[in-house]
Fold this protein.
Amino acid sequence: MERREFLRNIPRGIICGVAAAHVFISNAWSSVYNVLTNTPQLKKNPEEILKEMYKEVVELGPYENEDFIKREFHIDLDSDENNSEEHVVFLIQSVGDKEKMIIQVTYFEAKRTRIIKYAKDIKTILCYVKGDKIEIKKCDYSENDIKSLFP
């Protein structure tokens, strides 16, 4: 009788053991996976991001016969050229011993058709760059808007 109960309980024990091992292994795997794949995002302040933008635009250089740098970019948020929602203009000009950088972001919205868009809002950032230091003089963005502009 004891032998039959033992034989009847063996499959239950094996099933419970396999299930427990699966739970422990999957939990351990997810813990290791999260540690290996989740790299902490370094929070950058707006000045650092503006410096990076400045360096990239300065690398493009001025157009021929101009003593200032002007670059324009259209940003399409959904990878469709017909849906260019934002237009960004960088203007960099030497002023004495530092450079003046103006960033103008124009937000568009479509009224009736997707093709014709009207300027909904214009925001400007004015800053001065001298060496590695950047000084923001004027910014039309609020604290919450800046966080979305500079993630």
Observations:
- The chain has two domains: 1-39, 46-149.
- The longest strand covers residues 117-130.
